[in-house]
Amino acid sequence: MLDEQAKKTMLRKIPHGIYVCGVKDGDELNGFTASWVMQASFTPPLVINCVKSDSTSHAMIKSSGVFALSVLEAGQKEIAQNFFKPIRRVGNKFEDVEFYTGEETGCPIIKASLGYVECKVVGSVAEGDHTVFVGEVIGAGVHKDGEPLLLESTGWNYGG
To answer: What are the DSSP calls for 92-150, one per residue?
Structure first.
């Protein structure tokens, strides 16, 4: 029998970075705070991005086939927090955050982040309440040197 508390405790001990995933579909832009992200391959360079199936951004990624991940710096918790809010409740999440659109995907990239990768979706697996999008890295850039923001340093929990 599964010990629910042990499961929750141990799954929350898996380390995660905090990213802003920028998405676009046509002229519409959105972003969300992502933490279930990892590198999946060297050749070709692939990342995995797990996205909540019932979100606006999920539908946008499915439609456009692209996304960008801005790697937040330690201390940028406020930026991450801004992107937790559903777009239908708050409107434009980028209103108070300086960004530009990526050359390869047109997705929004946070200017103050450590850097970014732009990805085109090359596969997906829809299971449970998230879809695993496999993205091939087709663009990347470094804005500055620094330490990445980690989920455990924010005091937040996602998962378990």
So the answer is: -TTTTS-EEE-TTT--EEETTSSEEEEEEEEEEEEETTEEEEEEEEEEEEE----PBPB
